[in-house]
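User: Sequence in, structure out. Go.
Assistant: Echoing your sequence, followed by the structure tokens.
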Amino acid sequence: MIYQPKLPRWTHQNKALHTMNGAPAFALLMEMRTGKTKVILDEFGQDVLDGRIENLLVVAPAGVYRTWEVDAAKHLADEFKARVRIGRWESDAPPAAKRSLTDAMKRRGPKILLVNVEALSTVDAAKVLCTLFLTQGPTTMVIDESTTIKNHKAKRTKFCLRAGLLAKKRRILSGMPTPQSPLDIFAQFGFLDPRIIGHSSFERFQARYAVVTPKPFGPGGRLINTVSGYQNLPELKAKLQPYAYRVRLADCYDLPEKMYLRRDVELTPEQRVAYAQMQAFATTVLENTERVTATIVLTQLLRLHQILAGHTKSDNGIIVDIPENKTAEVLSILAEHPGKAIIWAAYDADIRKIARKITEVYGEGSVARFWGGNADTREDEEKQFKTDPKCRFMVATASAGGRGRTWDVADLMIYYSTTFSLEHRMQSEERAQMVGKTDHVAYFDLICRNTVEDKIVDALRNKKRLSDMITGDRWKEWIAP
């Protein structure tokens, strides 16, 4: 047997560019952390240099699309960065800012427009801007985390399919294009080119590649068609292969042992109101306190922190849920990850909520829990997570599961929320590490922008204790609006 060393990441990126070779439609099926964003930016720069493409439209989830701006600053050549204009759609931006963005995207020269895919479901102005942008010159249109358009009936999917016809090149990026079913690829590859899979109708596509069985539904026993299995999958794989490039994380050895990543999460309207009210209340309390201590400040931070997690406590001690977007962001990340993952949450209410939502998507037995509320069963659930391939997710509190546990079957951690304890953070990060482990671990922090979470997570990542940083009047940097 000949030893085949793992290839470094840059080799995969170069090979991906070579494989695309200017193709009008192509899928980069590269797992998280293998550099698919860099591949697109490299191709865009070369296309502009060669005069083939002028603009790049990136459609990505709300928690991701801002990171393209950071990656562009990191990966684009300095001379090119000085020329390229980058615009980012913000649904809550004032009208003047939106007009300014539209004007900027009309100017000549290379441009990158970043739009969150959620806006394409409901915001007409975002659709108008994308359509206008695609007519300004030859454009590459990219759908990042393309599973966000897997539902062929969704408004965002229908718009992307129409808009893609205006693009000279189309690209989809996904680490796991079929998280639930092979049928998930219909709309994704339909965006690239319906001729790839040979079907423009979902019904005909489903009839070819799924086994559909009529089953009774509802009180009247009405028959509905239910997918009971799949067929002709080797044929489907052969159709996709010339138009896709696959990279697994296991193929790359030059990744850092720990990779810290961030997902921005928008506040819901209900959270914005609750946060502003609590921020004003906390500021008033602290300003009227004769001697402000770190303990008092942390108490006020806790109240703000709970609102960002999606709940608050009423005056009579009842937990009140607040609509939030973090749970959806957890599911979005998991949809791109083929392996096992640990989700950390600071509060019991969040453990229940996250576990319930994961079960709804991935089925019974897919999630284990480790927290104070399941002390009688958590050892058995932990064993299931470590040994059962179907149990892919562990949802835990750092106070219960952050010490003395070996959960190295996972190579992804998501911090839905993090406690204020530096010890909790450092201990929890080590649960997926083990001597001799070769897989690298990614750490995602879900952060509500322009809130106390920004400072809390930055401090803990940099191994600083919050109590040491909140001294004297510095509490105003953390809480005061």
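User: And one key feature?
Assistant: The domain at 9-251 is CATH 3.40.50.10810 (Rossmann fold).
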